Fold these 2 entries.
Entry 1:
Amino acid sequence: MILTVGNTKGGVGKTTLAINIAAARAKQGRDVLLIDGDRQGTAQTAIGFRAEREDLPGIACAAYPDGSILRSQLLQQRGKYDDIIIDAGGRDSTALRAALILTDVLLVPYRPGSFDVWALEDISELIKEARSMRDDLIAYTIINAADANPHSIDNREAAEIITDYTELAFLSTPIVGRKAFSNAAGGGMCVQEYKPIDPKASAELEALVKALFND
Ligand SMILES: Nc1ncnc2c1ncn2[C@@H]1O[C@H](COP(=O)(O)OP(=O)(O)OP(=O)(O)O)[C@@H](O)[C@H]1O
Ligand SMILES: [Mg+2]
């Protein structure tokens, strides 16, 4: 399956989640390719650290920030991996648009707080545009770096406002802001691999992966 983690808004956790999801799938024994679609190359650098760890299952990684190259590479490589995870770069990038045409599933993380929620308008437009060319694009959204208190006003507001965006299906189990997510991703790992294990973070990522892959 091809999964794209994308949002036109920066800093919402695209790279953090893409790495955590890719590593969680590799840990499940899947053959994974992680595509860094961002010129900053953060995901590729993190996977470089992972490669030094012989105890962890490997993840293939490539950087294709250019949309037309991403598209041609996806067409060539999609049959060769169990899962392809794309960290689609920032604002309206060509990589994001190219990914939306070929991906099976899009995951749109956003943070609680009005600026991020407004930005959902932009990604919704891109999803609409992609769906005019293909009607089978599945698009989910999830609150990332949520408040640890599930009843916090920020979390509630963020969950309520999403109902205005009908292009996106809301995943109701959030990813909370936890050091484990950022620390794990920095080393090219998922929270289930990063020691000491944070059981709450592990449970959150497990629920997300289950919802996305449904296998
Ligand atoms: N669930 C989380 N818990 C704790 N920290 C997080 C979480 N998600 C993201 N972060 C931190 O927030 C910052 C931004 O995350 P990240 O780089 O993944 O966002 P991005 O959407 O890829 O940003 P960019 O648009 O710059 O590529 C990073 O410092 C990251 O470690
Ligand atoms: Mg990023």
Note: The first strand starts at residue 2 and ends at 5.
Entry 2:
Amino acid sequence: MRLLRGDLHHHTHHSDGAESVAEAARRCRAQGYDFLAVTDHDTGAAWREAAQVSGLTLMPGVEVTTFHGHALALGTWGPVEWRDLGRGDAPRLFGRIRAAGGLAAVAHPFFVGGSVCAGCAWDFADWEGADAVEVWHGPDPQERPHNRAALRRWEELLTAGERPVPLGVRDWHGGGEAGEEWASTWVYAAGAALSDVVEALRRGRVFVSVGPRLVLTGEGDLLPGDEAAGEVALRLAYLGGWPGTVELRLVGPQGPWAGRRVRGRGLLEHRWCAAPGEWCRGEVAVGERLLAFTHPVFGPA
Ligand SMILES: [Zn+2]
Ligand SMILES: [Zn+2]
């Protein structure tokens, strides 16, 4: 199993981004990313200059930019028609993205917008059926109200029986300020090929982080996105990536199941009685400041 770091929401000069595909790919590789999804607004034109950069897996994508909110189509260059969709048509939008061969992700659902994003918030009536949700979006993600609202909504969806995979994205258009923190989406993948990364996303082998690296496993080869049959021993390994002491926690619908403080690297183990409809995710925090979180292991459906 390989731990790979990615950015899944990225614009180029094929829409309103500042760079070519090759420039974006080289910069992301230099910044330590292993994979990059190019997601221009309503066009897959970037495929024409899809760049080969050693050590970086390039993923096709489109940001479907509708009147009622934005959705990422990950793993496909589209096209995805949206002009006929009304507020009640989110399931049709997700269906079209999947029919085009992509994963459907709700983008920045509570973002009120800014200079590069108008009509950004999710105004569709439904969320059900999305493959993924952007939980952390933009710089300093854990400080921003639209991400706190997205985290709460994501947990409500999990408790309601939905299993959308959380994403942490930059929504990069260019620039960026020194000292800002940015979230990445990490996957536990069998290899670095595009098909390996897409499969890991599809199965929910994911954590979102501004730095710390986490591996959540359970007995019987359980990984995030899997279902536990009943009582199960879970292990949350912290592999570093943050200075000083951090708090490792296993968290469920009612709050932490278990926690401990570690420094450098560390392990939290917990026997979890997986009740139907429950879930358990890992996280690392400093005080109330969340730094990283995993997709959950789920109780029986
Ligand atoms: Zn957008
Ligand atoms: Zn965007």
Note: Residues 214-298 form a domain with the Immunoglobulin-like fold (CATH 2.60.40).
